[in-house]
Design a protein that fits this description.
Layout: H1 11-22, H2 28-35, H3 40-44, E1 47-48, E2 56-57, H4 74-109, H5 120-130, H6 139-154, H7 169-178, H8 185-195, H9 204-234, E3 240-244, E4 254-259, H10 263-273, H11 276-284, E5 290-295, H12 296-306, E6 310-312, H13 317-322, E7 326-331, E8 350-353, E9 364-365, H14 373-387, E10 403-407, H15 411-419, H16 427-435, E11 440-444, H17 456-467, E12 470-474, H18 476-484, H19 491-496, H20 499-508, E13 513-515, H21 522-535, E14 547-551, H22 557-568, E15 572-575, H23 585-599, E16 603-605, H24 609-626, H25 643-654
Parallel strand pairs: 4-5, 4-7, 5-6, 7-8, 8-9, 11-12, 11-14, 12-13, 14-15, 15-16
Antiparallel strand pairs: 1-2, 3-10
């Protein structure tokens, strides 16, 4: 059993974990303990239940069954399971994108008072890119045509996704040669599901390529569309200061937390929480005001556009309620633990589910529809206010921890920050890499996973990367982890970054770790590296850039899709835990070795965050040598392995 002191690297979370223990309130880590030992066959990916002749499992030691009832081998079962898992993640992010486009259509048609077109520059830029006439037309007319075009990308039946045109020529050639060029979002996801049905696709490599195509339809299709349209509908983010961690909750205010992934409701709740009538109602109940905060990627959405503070990431959703001061939590989709509903029995918090796609037993369901957005948002804020007097003062415990941060960087505003207002360009970034002042670029993203010390893997990896002069960009729960540790503040450069990265951060005034949005906004990382290719000097295709990716604590199917489209786009990516493919040596080698021939990049599996960082640094250095770039300007000795790794190695040596 994992000791509680090892369950989080975050002091605020540790305080609440111990408080939950004292109060005998079971939380995620306790439920994990109750699941031990977990299924080893599932971890290796060699359990199949795609038909009722099973479930079938393959003996990894070769002493039992080597095929399923239908004759499927371990290679087929592993590849099929990988594809099915990835499709769940691709569908989640892409469906998010579809909903955002529907909201844009409502705004364009004037059918919702809650939504206005705020990102007019982005609207006109996309209209030009997609060939939509804009001269002499108002924003609503242009937006209506854009919404119609983008909705068509989901149901496209002929040709390829429009955003393939954004991809560097070499990556397009790789995709065409492998037969994975994304066609239409829905088509590639449905085709992938069909491939996994019994008696359809049994070739493991072909199944894996189906995974690649569906992931690319997500990354360059559904997710990229979601990001672009969010910028049009809610406004393009700008760097903004805010705070992160459970200390942002206030004992003397109504605390309303939004949790999930859909900005269509949370954006409107931000407006509703500032309504003078509702503020007056809160004061009449004895509160000093209304305090809005976020959990997970909904938090990132409203953080980067409004500076709304972040209460925490995935594994803190229960801990926030256990503070005793959350009057309401409003949830939508993705990463919502059904267990939080039971906490209402111990604490006064009211939890409201809102999505037509997601109901949770024990939660009050108030269904949200875009054409009634403001009405629904005000109702939810009012319910939070009315619950404020029901707090139990004896159960209130708010950690003091909260850290300052800067969030809201995008592909577009990085131009301005790096090049200046009058010379917006990626040239300074490319020059910094060419000179060796910046060693390279790393995207560190993904979830929390209760199997590992909460946040620790993100923090150790990112600190080792920036210590070695690698500029880090982040999204999702990983970004929140680093925000809570102070790494998203400009001062972090002086404390943690290497000399070269310090010089860049000091000159420009940016943190060494850039927050670029929610997990769906990983597409911003793709478009940023495309801009680096366009700028030139450090490689004419993505796979040649000194750029890497990582997901140190992933747990969601979305992370499989994200990792696959990042790798297939030419970016070496390290993940922990390993993908559930180790029951097939063939599939594991395909992903970690053979993919280099197909896409110029591979996956890597590494459970130690420092060792994973070193794999990333070594890869960046190889890319620098291949490009003929000089060594890094400042040499930095590698940090030692983590204590856990050293202890494991010593124990193995003793045996």
């Amino acid at each position: 059993m994992v000791e509680r002191k090892q369950r989080s690297a975050d002091p605020a979370s540790l305080e609440m974990i111990n408080f939950a223990c004292e109060a005998e309130v079971p939380i995620a880590w306790d439920r994990l303990d109750a699941q031990e030992p977990q299924c080893g066959f599932g971890r290796l990916g060699i359990c199949c239940r795609n038909c009722t002749m099973g479930p079938c499992r393959i003996d990894p030691f070769g002493e039992g069954a080597d095929r399923g009832v239908c004759g499927a081998t371990a290679d087929t079962i592993v590849a099929r399971n990988l594809l099915r898992g990835l499709l769940g993640g691709a569908a989640a992010h892409s469906d998010h994108g579809r909903d955002i486009v529907h909201a844009l259509a409502l705004a364009a048609e004037g059918k919702s008072d809650a939504y206005k077109i705020k990102g007019t520059v982005k609207l006109r830029k996309l209209a030009e890119e997609y060939g939509i006439p804009s001269e002499g037309r108002n924003d609503q007319e242009v937006a209506k045509d854009l919404a119609h075009l983008l909705l068509g990308e989901f149901g496209r039946q002929e040709g390829v996704l429009a955003n393939v045109a954004r991809v560097p020529e070499q990556q397009q050639k790789f995709w065409a040669a492998a037969g994975v060029t994304p066609r239409g979002v829905d088509q590639d996801i449905v085709t992938g599901m069909h491939m996994t049905h019994i008696g359809v696709d049994n070739d493991p490599e072909h199944l894996v390529m189906g995974s690649v195509r569906a992931a690319l339809a997500d990354g360059w299709g559904g997710s990229m569309i979601a990001t672009d349209v969010s910028d049009i509908l809610f406004g393009e983010p700008q760097p903004t200061r805010s705070l992160a961690n459970l200390g942002v909750l206030n004992e003397d205010e109504v605390n309303l937390i939004v949790h999930g992934h859909e900005p269509t409701l949370s954006e409107v709740i931000v407006a509703a929480a500032g309504d003078p009538e509702l503020v007056a109602l809160a004061e009449s109940k004895g509160a000093k005001g209304i305090n809005l905060a976020g959990i997970c990627c909904t938090a990132n959405e409203i953080l980067m556009r409004h500076g709304i503070p972040v209460a925490g990431n995935f594994l803190q959703q229960e801990l926030a309620i256990i503070t005793g001061v959350v009057d309401a939590m409003v949830v939508d989709v993705q990463c919502i633990m059904p267990a939080i509903a039971r906490l209402q029995e111990c604490f006064h918090t009211k939890i409201f589910s809102t999505s037509p796609k997601a109901k949770f037993p024990g939660m009050t369901h108030i269904e949200f529809h875009e054409d009634e957005a403001m009405e629904t948002a005000k109702k939810l804020v009012r319910l939070a206010i009315e619950n404020f007097p029901n707090r139990n003062a004896s159960k209130v415990r708010i950690p003091k921890e909260k850290e300052g941060l800067i969030a809201g960087f995008t592909t577009e505003d990085i131009f301005t920050f790096l090049g200046g207002r009058y010379r917006p360009s990626y040239r300074p970034l490319c020059d910094g890499i060419q000179a060796g002042r910046i060693r390279g670029l790393a995207g560190v993203v993904g979830c929390n996973n209760a199997k590992f010390t909460h946040d620790r893997y993100h923090l150790e990896m990112v600190k080792e990367l920036i210590r070695n002069d690698i500029l880090v960009v982040q999204t999702g729960c990983s970004a929140i982890a680093c925000a809570k540790a102070g790494l998203l503040a400009p001062e972090a450069a002086e404390k943690y970054a290497g000399n070269g990265l310090q010089e860049i951060c000091r000159a420009v005034g940016i943190p060494p770790v850039l927050h670029v949005g929610s997990c769906v906004d990983n597409s911003r990382i793709l478009t940023a590296v495309v801009e680096m290719v366009k700028e030139g000097g450090i490689g004419d295709s993505i796979d040649k850039l000194p750029v890497v990716g990582a997901a140190p604590e992933w747990m969601s199917e979305k992370a499989i899709s994200i990792g696959m489209y990042v790798v297939a786009s030419g970016i070496f990516t390290v993940v922990n835990p390993p993908l559930p493919v180790r029951g097939s040596r063939y599939v594991e080698e395909l992903l970690t070795k053979t993919f280099e021939d197909y896409f110029g990049a591979t996956w890597a599996f590494e459970e130690d965050p420092i060792e994973a960082a070193h794999l990333m640094i070594d890869h960046i250095d190889r890319k620098r040598r291949d490009l003929g770039l000089p060594p890094p300007m400042y040499e930095v000795p590698y940090a030692p392995k983590t204590v856990e790794t050293i202890e494991t190695a010593e124990a193995a040596a003793a045996l």
